């Protein structure tokens, strides 16, 4: 009986100890986290935004048809050292916009207004794909808002000089089908708006890049949807730019190569820009 009593006492002590342990914290569901998310009435629509961490402000911008959750592999890393701000762009994710028109310039201005709403004078910026285009335009239209800029998979024009023909051929059939359809459902209207953005824009002159003042890290995959020579063109025309082409990589550099992406971009953000000329080229 004594052995049974001892076992029962031990079991009760273990159960009490287990109950006294704090409950394991739930991991945030990025893109639908009520503890971090909030709507901001900006420029005629409600922009959904989530903020994580403390430190220097870091704004992250997703690509066409994406949302906050696209950066689930990056937010935990950056939020350890930065006040990480990530929103659903106009007409995407939870940021519903019923208007017919959409442009990269509109979205760049949205992000500038979001920083104002958050009372953040300037931030580091990371942009992927369309988010990279938005980052370039944010640096051009609102230069005081951008401390440093890291872009991956961005393009300056909507044609096969920037995008591979096989990629263009994948996108244009749906664009043509919806273009010819006179009456569109609400879902088709939303898809059409984003497809028009993808196929008809952007139109950023190469010469405009000369005006970008902030240090910029230009990133691409060596098998990206964007031609490597186009990524090089962007890099060559930004005065304070570094270039990083990932080997064996497509368009999804922040996801497929998340660890290398996070650490390399973080290092770029933390270190002063270094002009490499003359004998420094040998180092």
Quick structural overview:
The protein is of the alpha/beta class. The protein has helices at residues 2-20, 75-78, 104-117, 130-141, 165-180, 186-200, 228-237, 253-256, 258-270; strands spanning 37-42, 45-52, 56-61, 82-87, 123-128, 146-152, 216-221, 241-246.
Report on this structure.
- This protein is an alpha/beta fold.
- It contains 9 helices and 8 strands.
- It has an 8-stranded mixed beta sheet, sandwiched between helices.
- Helix 3 packs across helix 4 and helix 5 crosses helix 6.
- The protein is globular, with a radius of gyration of 23 Å.
- The termini are far apart.
- The N terminus is likely disordered.
| Shape designation | globular
Q: Which structural class fits the helix and strand makeup?
A: alpha/beta
- Taking the alpha carbons of the first and last residues, their distance comes to 78 Å
Share of helix, binned: 25-40%
Number of strands: 8
Spatial order of the strands forming the largest sheet: 1-2-4-3-5-6-7-8
Radius of gyration: 23 Å
The string of secondary-structure elements, in order, is: HEEEHEHEHEHHEHEHH
Strand content: 15-25%
Task: Kindly report the average pLDDT value.
Answer: 92
Major sheet summary line: 8 strands, mixed
Low-pLDDT stretches: 1-23
What is the helix tally? 9
What is the topological layout?
Layout: H1 2-20, E1 37-42, E2 45-52, E3 56-61, H2 75-78, E4 82-87, H3 104-117, E5 123-128, H4 130-141, E6 146-152, H5 165-180, H6 186-200, E7 216-221, H7 228-237, E8 241-246, H8 253-256, H9 258-270
Parallel strand pairs: 3-4, 3-5, 5-6, 6-7, 7-8
Antiparallel strand pairs: 1-2, 2-4
């Amino acid at each position: 009986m004594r052995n049974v009593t001892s076992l029962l006492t031990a079991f009760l002590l273990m159960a009490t100890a287990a109950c006294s342990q704090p409950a394991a914290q739930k991991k945030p569901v990025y893109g639908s986290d009520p503890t971090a998310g909030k709507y901001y009435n900006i420029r005629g629509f409600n922009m959904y935004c989530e903020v994580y961490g403390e430190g220097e402000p870091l704004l992250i911008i997703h690509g066409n048809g994406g949302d906050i959750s696209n950066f689930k592999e990056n937010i935990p890393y950056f939020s350890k050292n930065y006040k990480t701000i990530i929103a659903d762009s106009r007409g995407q994710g939870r940021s519903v916009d019923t208007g017919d028109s959409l442009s990269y310039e509109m979205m760049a201005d949205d992000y500038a207004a979001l920083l104002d709403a958050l009372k953040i004078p300037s931030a580091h910026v990371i942009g992927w794909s369309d988010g990279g285009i938005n980052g370039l335009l944010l640096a051009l239209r609102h230069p005081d808002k951008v401390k440093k800029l890291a872009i991956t998979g961005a393009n300056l024009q909507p044609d096969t000089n920037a995008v591979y023909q096989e990629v263009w051929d994948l996108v244009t059939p749906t664009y043509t089908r919806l273009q010819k359809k006179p009456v569109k459902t609400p879902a088709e209207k939303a898809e059409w708006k984003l497809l028009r953005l993808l196929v008809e824009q952007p139109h950023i002159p190469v010469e405009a890049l000369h005006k970008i003042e902030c240090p910029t890290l230009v990133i691409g995959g060596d098998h990206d949807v964007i031609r490597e020579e186009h990524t090089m063109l962007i890099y060559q025309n930004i005065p304070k730019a570094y270039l990083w082409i990932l080997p064996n990589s497509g368009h999804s550099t922040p996801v497929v190569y998340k660890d290398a992406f996070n650490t390399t971009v973080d290092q770029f953000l933390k270190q002063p820009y270094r002009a490499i000329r003359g004998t420094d080229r040998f180092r």
